[in-house]
Amino acid sequence: MTSRFIRLPEVLHLTGLSRSTVYRMEGRGDFPKRRQLGAGSVGWNYGEVLAWMEARQPFGSVGDA
Q1: Is the dihedral of CA 40, 45, 49, 50 positive or negative?
Q2: Helix (H) or strand (E) holding 55
Q3: 2 neighbors 50 (Cβ within 8 angstroms)
């Protein structure tokens, strides 16, 4: 798993989610938790975000038979 940290703009770009969706999903435990990097900064583990993305069902496959 890749251990670098990414900030919110990159998380939003990678996932295509909105800021509020990321925070809502994180609060429910449906998205990787952010980590405190410093006094006023947080980041997400890049590898965890990638693993979350890979675990998601591809768009269009729901209900396809």
Answers
A1: positive
A2: helix 46-55
A3: yes
What pLDDT digit, counting tens, does each position of 11-25 carry? 999 999 999 999 999
Q: What is the 3-state secondary structure (H, E, C) of 22-44?
A: HHHHHHHCCCCCCEEEECCEEEE
Element (H, E) at 65: none
Closest CA to 12 of 1, 25, 22, 4: 22
Please say if the pLDDT value at position 63 is more than 70.
no
Residue position matching structure tokens 């890049």: 46
Distance CA 51, CA 44 (A): 12
CA dist., res. 57 & res. 15, Å (int): 13
As given in the structure block, the two tokens for residue 28 are 């429910």
Indicate whether this model's pTM tops 0.90.
Answer: no
